[in-house]
Amino acid sequence: MYLCLLFGVACAASHHFYYWSLDGRPATNQIKMMRYGTMLAFGAKAGLSAAVIVAFRQRVWTTVRKRFMTVGALDALFSATEDSQAVMSWEMVQSAKVAALLAAYVWLAPLVVVLTSNTLLVVPRRVQTPEMCPGVRTLNFTFEETYEWRKPPKIDRLFEIPLSLWNTTKEPEKDDPGWFDYYTAPNPSFQNTATIGSFLEEAVMRKNAPIETCGSGWNCSFEIQFIAPAYKCTDLGSGVDSKVTNLTQESGTIAPPFNMDVLLPKGKFTYYAFTSGGEYSTTQMKEVGIGGRPTMKSPFPKHLGAFRTEPVIWLGYVTLADDTKPVPSSPSDPAWSTAFIPHIFACENYESNYTVRINYTDAAQSTTMTNVTYLRPVINTTYLPHIDANDGTADNVTAVPISNYILPTSVASYRRTAAYHSLGFMLRDQINGTVGIGDDRENLVNPIANTKAIQTSRLLDYGNNYFPFPDIQRRIQKFYEDIILSVLGNPQFASVVWAARPGEQSGVTFNGPDYNSKRPMMTEEEKGLLYPCTKFRMALVYKFNARLLWIVYSISIALAVAGVVVGALALRENGGVVRDTKFSSIVAATRGSGLGRVRWTDGTDGTGVSVGGDGTVPEEVKGWRMGYGVVDASGGGGGYGGDGRLDVGDGFMGGRTVYGFGFEGDVRQLRRTPSLVQLTTLGK
């Protein structure tokens, strides 16, 4: 009994630890794993049930020794754990409540297997693991500083591409001292990439990047750092009739080129972007030859090709004072003057330190800027509008201090600045212009647009009369970030490098290693290009409901322990002898001479002689009350106890006694008291 209980508890604990070991693991070999769990559940059920069955048997003998029951109730009592109908015997339940409860536990024990089988589930879950990923790239614009367009580097049959195009003062086939290259415009390849990103409204993704980096069937994310330009924005004013403050730069102060009066409700514009003030002139000299060579002889003007300043983005926009109210359609509406709030801000191009998280999920790319640290202005000068340079060039832009001009003769810084300028130019070109109403200011329903910004929904709300989004300042910064990250979409650009080796250009790598192929080993070169990442995917995993498991087992074990306690007490009352309900035990307990007076079957008489019939016990006999105890057998032989042993005791009043079953009136039953064991004749 005790060993069975311990075995059941051990199986329950093993069941818990087994399922706990599977929790969160990929759901492989599901049938096999479930079978092991079911086996442990059956073991727990079998052990606990066996313990209660042994306890039930002890309680049965204690019950029949203490009270009389009908033959039918005794039938039900002795077969309660084997015959489901026996448990339904109301007389048995009334006469042997504790034994009936133990039998009920045995019949309900299979629920342990049923209920615990639902504690290990297979559910979809995001599986995440830190890995080393191939093919991760970042940006390093120092390669723009050293790029030689006359002898471009080549990787896997393809030439590397700079972000800028160049003119030169060098004569063909000559190497005169003092010649230099100077900036012309953004490279057409980069213009194409930036334009695609503008229309996609997201950073351009490298072809097959998710498969190359994450591997088949996986998503992944990683974080890269690089130095690139970023627009630092400053609010200058908000509200009708508010004063617009000047922009304070590191090199000086500059006034906005417009004020609130050009914006609604006083003006006619809802969007007003001026981004060309101080723009580098693509015509540096009026008379040039092939390749931008000046026709004049050297020395050339000192500021030929110089980056004098980086244009500031000046942007005015209008938001609605209450977007829950209808928008006034014309100035004649009384709500016109209070319905609109004008704003103005300015953005400067700064060299910045980026931290970016790139995520590939379901073959789609998303980027998150986790940190941007502004380092220094791309060109640390302040533009002086309406002042011509008159320095011998066709570029009349003037800025101060002149000493901060970036000249073509400073090759490294000039080429890096050229790359930054090309990036900024593509943004400024996209957002420059206006959106507003006509000169008659009588129709807000159909706005008039004179800007490329209307080509995408990044900045203007199509569903709200093309009003700018209230967070347009952050949207412009995000627009610029996407243009920069789009460079990663074409590894042929010179500034695209391996994230694991920022000093090494990646190229397109047509003949690069297939990191996702099943090969026994990677070369040291391949290992050196792996970069930390996080791989994840939705997968079927095991989920263990420990709470439900232990609710079931706790109840089952608690009831089994209670049953064992009942069995232990019954064992004590039985004199410490473990009794059972084997055939020999039942026969030994039915040696009372009084039992022979009854016709036990329809096919025999009282003496046992066969008289025909079907051999079943008559109903009237089933109603007679019987009990187990001392049967008066004066002059008779001994009897067998409930455990199959011969039980002979000293006779009362000089006779001999035998323990066995007998009818009420023929049996003296035992009743235990704290002081002694008394023999009482019940029913008299």
Assembly status: single chain
- Proportion of residues in β-strands: 25-35%
Total helices: the number is 16
Low-confidence stretches: 608-613, 634-655, 672-684
Give the rounded overall mean pLDDT. Answer: 84
The figure for the number of domains is: 2
User: What is the β-strand count?
Assistant: 28
The SS-based structural class is alpha+beta
Rg from alpha-carbon coordinates: 48 Å
Described by strand count, sense and barrel closure, the largest sheet is: 9 strands, antiparallel
Give the overall shape.
elongated
- Share of helical residues: 25-40%
Q: How far apart, in Å, are the first and last alpha carbons?
A: 38 Å
Write up this protein.
- The chain has two domains: 1-134 and 530-581; 135-529, no CATH class.
- It is 29% helix and 26% strand.
- Residues 608-613, 634-655 and 672-684 have low confidence and may be disordered.
- The chain is elongated.
- It starts with a helix and ends with a strand.
- By secondary structure, the chain is α+β, with helices and mostly antiparallel strands.
- Strands 2, 8, 11, 12, 13, 14, 17, 18 and 22 form a nine-stranded antiparallel beta sheet that branches. Strands 1, 23, 24, 25, 26, 27 and 28 form a seven-stranded antiparallel beta sheet that branches.
- The protein contains 16 helices and 28 strands.
- Helix 2 packs parallel to helix 14 (546-573) and helix 8 packs across helix 12 (472-486).
- The chain crosses the membrane at residues 36-56, 98-123, 548-571.
- This is WGS project CABT00000000 data, contig 2.21.
